[in-house]
Amino acid sequence: MHHRASLLSLLLAVLAGAVAVIAPSDESGDLRRAFIDGADWTPLGLSDFVNVNGTDDTWSESDGVIRCSGIPLGGARTTKQYENFELVLEWRHLVEAGNSGVFLWCPESAFTDLPPGKLPRSGIEVQVLDLEYETRHRDPANIWFTSHGDVFPVGASNMKPFEPAAPNGRRSFPSKQLTKGVGEWNHYYIRAINGEVRLWVNGEEVSGGTDCKPASGYLALESEGSAVEFRNLRIRELP
């Protein structure tokens, strides 16, 4: 009985540690992450991305913050491709009604000969949208997006969305409204495994989907017309 109790205690301790990795903590109003030492998380900076179709002024980095002017429309993709992974990041919009996104599993064709002013052609997008955008553009008679962490396929990509889903059946709406407004940092934890994507917004799982195709490719940050910042990007590749 003693050995069984010890094993149960060990399992509970391991589970508690896993939760600590996922759940963000709020220290003095600044959202921070708790990581297990030696857990193979790799930081991502601007040098880990390729400026696909922006100008020299579209993307910049200082003090650990990646800044995007939003002009022209386009994207910056990672230098390598990923299949199964966990990704954490913080983001904030600098202007009201700001629009951006994080792309997963983009094929090479999403960026080939992509002219300035064009967004990535395909991939799974995790929406990064300021609350004011929804206030200004959402039509109560045709609700097809939210500002709280939609996940959806772009172009030729496909995904079966988790409920609640958009009326068109392609976009996963968040189950909770947790996004903070302009100027405030938001935290995303994204888990992408075997064609399944799950998104946590500010510590709680809200949306995602399965049967994603393709289920490997580049990650990308989106430039979509307004200034946005990203920081504390970390990725952990999984088997």
Descriptive labels:
2 helices; about 240 residues; disordered N terminus; six-stranded antiparallel sheet; 2 domains; Jelly Rolls; about 10% helix
On the 0 to 100 scale, the average pLDDT is 88
Radius of gyration: 18 Å
- At the first level of CATH, the class of the largest domain is Mainly Beta
- Model regions low in confidence, pLDDT < 50 over at least 5 residues: 1-38
Q: What shape does the CA trace take?
A: globular
What's the N-to-C terminus distance? 35 Å
Total DSSP helices: 2
Q: Total domains, how many?
A: 2
Helix content: 10-25%
Q: Please outline the major beta sheet.
A: 9 strands, antiparallel
Question: How is the CATH topology of the largest domain named?
Answer: Jelly Rolls
Count of β-strands: 17
CATH superfamily label of the largest domain: Exo-inulinase, domain 1
Walk me through the structure.
- With about 240 residues, the protein is mainly β.
- The chain folds into two domains: about 35 residues; about 200 residues, Jelly Rolls (Sandwich), CATH 2.60.120.
- About 10% of the residues lie in helices and about 40% in strands.
- It has two helices and 17 strands.
- The strands form three sheets. Strands 3, 5, 6, 8, 12, 13, 14, 15 and 17 form a nine-stranded antiparallel β-sheet that branches.
- Strand 14 and strand 15 form a beta hairpin.
- The longest helix is centred in the first third of the chain and has 21 residues.
- The protein is globular and about 40 Å long.
